[in-house]
Design goal:
alpha/beta; D-Amino Acid Oxidase, Chain A, domain 2; about 25% strand; FAD/NAD(P)-binding domain; 22 strands; single chain; FAD/NAD-bd_sf; about 425 residues; MTOX; oxidoreductase; flavoprotein; FAD-dep_OxRdtase
């Protein structure tokens, strides 16, 4: 039986999943929603969504996620809350001449998945060589050695921090309450004595928030709040950096498709407001297991995550030299690690915590492909609450065993294996 909409709901985390859930519940008539956030501002700088931009695409080998991504894109195109932050510049999905067979095969599968889906009719442009790529991305002045792939026009990017800020303001207007900083930094969940029935949370300021339903949406920090989920998810990160352009240089690159070079990384057109180009070395991601009993946990402070590994600098410059060599050696600025909660099969976890009598919900496992779902993610949570069970087996809580926080393993759709941060040198910028 779904909860009464007047009963208190507590959401831990004001990132993408938390904000989307709060907005959906508020628009569905829930009248007592409180969101706790450890940062002292929103958009939260601890959220993986705190960024200039995020790719909005529907390339999945699994048609289940393709359909959800298409539904999300329709919302990005039309929903007044999100549409102002969406740029449908297309998604250029390519490999270089140095890509290995695993990466080439992955690209072929992505191409096949969209080519066979009628939703993409008229949106796909084959790019079998550098000349064809330049036709869809004339901003590229580099040699593009061995580059090939395709352009998907039904895709682009969203200005992610701006979209999160808009959702936050909409939630406030709907009466959602937000507690920030020490008042929103959860120290412990509260339970009925002798049970696993959650009745709320206590924060580091000592404040207590009681709730009939507590929803954890803590991103990469989820295991700090709910240690029992650590076997299912691993906190991993990627390094993000930026290059500052002049307004004139920015205008010359305007309209460039979001470009993913599957064996290296990805980059975006310059941000219209700041004229910064965001770049990311994709790799397999990084863990942080030091002093964490083998479990990967993000750094506690924002300052500790304000760097990127040296390998990221090497690979991003290599990628830029191939495509836009005139900016490839520019200073890399605003570097930071972007943390997410990763599952071994890239499925989300949207479920009640076992033995909690439906009092405790966890939203996790974004696995680096959660932001695009922001306009519809709250729907997934609403469905769970209405049904009082997770009908989709793939999104259920799973009893699994992971070893060494996944270090050394490779997720099928990524270009390389996971590496621990302690084993890779930091960039000196």
């Amino acid at each position: 039986m779904p909860p009464s909409k007047t009963e208190p709901v507590l959401i831990i985390g004001a990132g993408v999943f938390g904000l989307s859930t709060a907005h959906k519940l508020a628009t569905s008539g829930y009248t007592d929603i409180t969101v706790l956030e450890k940062d002292d501002r929103i958009p939260s700088r601890f959220s993986g969504g705190y960024d200039l931009n995020k790719i909005i695409r529907s390339e999945y080998i699994d048609p289940f996620y393709t359909q959800h991504a298409l539904n999300a894109i329709r919302q990005w195109q039309t929903n007044p809350l999100y549409q102002p932050y969406f740029r449908q510049v297309g998604f250029l999905n390519v490999v270089t001449g140095e890509a290995n067979e695993v990466v080439r095969n992955a690209l072929a599968k992505y191409n096949k998945s969209v080519a066979e889906n009628p939703a993409f009719d008229g949106y796909l442009v084959p790019c079998p060589d550098a000349d064809h790529i330049r036709r869809v991305a004339p901003q590229f002045t580099g040699a593009l050695p061995g580059w090939k792939g395709y352009l998907n026009g039904l895709a682009g990017y969203a200005q992610s921090s701006n979209a999160m800020g808009a959702c936050f303001k909409a939630c406030e207007q709907l009466g959602v309450k937000f507690k920030l900083g020490a008042d929103g930094d959860v120290a412990e969940l509260l339970y009925q004595p002798g049970t696993k029935v959650c009745v709320g949370a206590r924060t580091k300021s000592g404040a207590v928030y009681k709730a009939s339903r507590t929803i954890i949406a803590a991103g990469g920090f989820v295991a700090n709040v709910l240690p029992s989920i650590a076997e299912q998810v691993t906190a991993i990160c990627w390094g993000v950096s930026h290059i500052q352009l002049t307004p004139e240089e920015s205008e010359q690159m305007r309209g460039m498709p979001v470009t993913t070079v599957r064996d290296i990384g990805f980059f975006f057109e310059p941000d219209p407001a700041t004229h910064k180009v965001k770049i990311c070395y994709m790799g397999g991601g990084y863990t942080h297991t030091a002093q964490n009993n083998g479990k990967s946990i993000p750094y506690n402070s924002l300052a500790e995550s304000a760097y990127i590994p040296a390998e990221d600098v090497k690979q991003t410059r290599r990628m830029l030299r191939m495509a836009v060599p005139h900016i490839a050696e520019r200073p890399l600025i605003d570097t930071h690690l972007c943390w997410v909660a990763d599952t071994d099969n890239s499925d989300y976890i949207i479920d009640f915590v076992p033995e909690s009598d439906s009092s405790l919900v966890v939203l996790s496992g974004d696995s680096g492909h959660g932001f695009k779902m922001m306009p519809i993610f709250g729907d997934f949570v609403q469905d769970l609450l209405d049904a009082n069970t997770q009908k989709l087996a793939r999104w259920r809580w799973r009893e699994v065993k992971r070893d060494a926080a996944g270090t050394g393993k490779q997720i099928s759709w990524r270009a390389s294996a996971i590496v621990d941060l302690d084993s890779t040198p930091r960039a000196k910028l």
